[in-house]
DNA sequence: CCTCCGATAATTACTCCGACATATTACAGG
DNA sequence: CCTGTAATATGTCGGAGTAATTATCGGAGG
């Protein structure tokens, strides 16, 4: 039981808790391990090129069976974070191989202190994709899409972005736009980005009271889409993303 | 009520071969299983909501151990294709939960007859992202980026898109543009899309001889980026994607 | 008699264990 | 420098036991 083993590299990982500590209901053990290791990699605790200690050793450190550990590794492998080879061990892959747009990977990236440069990259991508999505939505939206958007907007007004319900309404609004485009690839992509961006919203809140009322921006986007004006929708969404970027930037800088 | 009889749905999967048939070196068993099941799901053989037969049964059908089968399932779970719960079994998730931009998922989607609508969606996304990427590349490229692009262009000219080397050069060209943007999120995204789009290139080849010389389009993009003209780069790339779409559409229609 | 709710039971995935097989690297010998 | 051999870590296997969720059944209340 006494693990007086001299392993030093992974000690800190296991030290946090038994690895089964953060295991809520519906959360499997291997999922918790993957979560922990994923965050450790994304946070830079393990860097590309580093090789993890062997299966048996690491599994024992985490106090889990080898099966559970292996299944967790398969998850990380599926997301491009690590690669395992016989005799060579399990190594962290270079960043370019990581599926940075995977929802879980994004969540892990934003679990700790997110890399500022990566946040900028994400906003840049959002600034490219979302206006185009709004343009398509203005061309293709139907009555039902408009109704969902209107309801979400009303909910945003009722609660604010300071509440969970308000942020949920914000997500609903953007999701409705995506659904209106009818483009599955666009939906999957922007849903991930949106989720990631919403993590930053909490940052904004934490820094200080919301510096701006986001409702008018959203209303302009809605009006343009409802009116079926692609150019106006694109412009309005472009402005919205730009303002969100500025807010986030100032919050992170402060 | 109880399905005491062996589920016949999965029979065909195992029937193709022992599931270990397509297992080259460097390709683990669970990877092969994930590959096979992933293609089965993406091809619609298993539809959202369907529930796979139990671990023991399915693993025995595939003639593999439960460990290997489970690890494969973890991979699919990590990519959002399925979800396993005790007592409920393993079910295929709705399409909206799939990580359609995951490189493996894309590969599976294009392994069989790709869904035409999805190809259109992908091209639409590409038409949004790639011109924007070209615009950024024109603003941020350095000497080295230009050199790589020029070399790739020369290689494309030497070999044609009919050869593997030529297609590799095409990928290099586009990758160089992405790298020049310096945006990691953009790189990951478009690398996936580009790979998927290249599968369609083989379709074009299969249908008939390449109907158009793609070099001039690429040259225009290169010149604009090298000259540092964002608008021209965006326009040229936009035209390139548009032409590629038309070629692919006509090839798939014929 | 019907509806709703709670305790119970059955089924399924989840976890653990120990052994063996395989692939890859590293080293020694030619 | 090349080749063959040995060491080692991952890969695969089969079984046993645990935990969790769903479905069923029974009783209380309408």
Oligomer: homodimer
CATH architecture of the largest domain in chain A: Up-down Bundle
Strand coverage percent of chain A: under 5%
Topology, number of strands of chain A: 2
Identify the CATH class of the largest domain in chain A: Mainly Alpha
| Most extensive chain-chain interface | A-B, 38 and 38 residues
Query: Describe the biggest sheet of chain A?
Result: 2 strands, antiparallel
Which class of secondary structure composition applies to the elements of chain A?
mainly alpha
Describe the structure.
2 copies of one chain form a homodimer. Chain A is mainly α. The first copy, chain A, has 2 domains: 2-97, Arc Repressor Mutant, subunit A (Orthogonal Bundle); 103-253, Up-down Bundle (Four Helix Bundle (Hemerythrin (Met), subunit A)). Helix content of chain A is 66%, strand content 3%. Chain A is built from 11 helices and 2 strands. Chain A has helices at residues 11-16, 29-42, 55-62, 66-78, 103-109, 116-140, 143-158, 164-181, 184-207, 215-227, 230-253, and strands spanning 82-85, 89-92. The first copy, chain A, has a two-stranded antiparallel sheet with strand order 1-2. In chain A, strand 1 and strand 2 form a beta hairpin. In chain A, helix 6 (116-140) runs antiparallel to helix 11 (230-253) and helix 9 runs parallel beside helix 11. The longest helix of chain A has 25 residues, at 116-140. Residues 1-16 of chain A have low confidence and may be disordered.
Annotation keywords:
mainly alpha; Arc Repressor Mutant, subunit A; Four Helix Bundle (Hemerythrin (Met), subunit A); 2 domains; 11 helices; elongated; DNA-binding
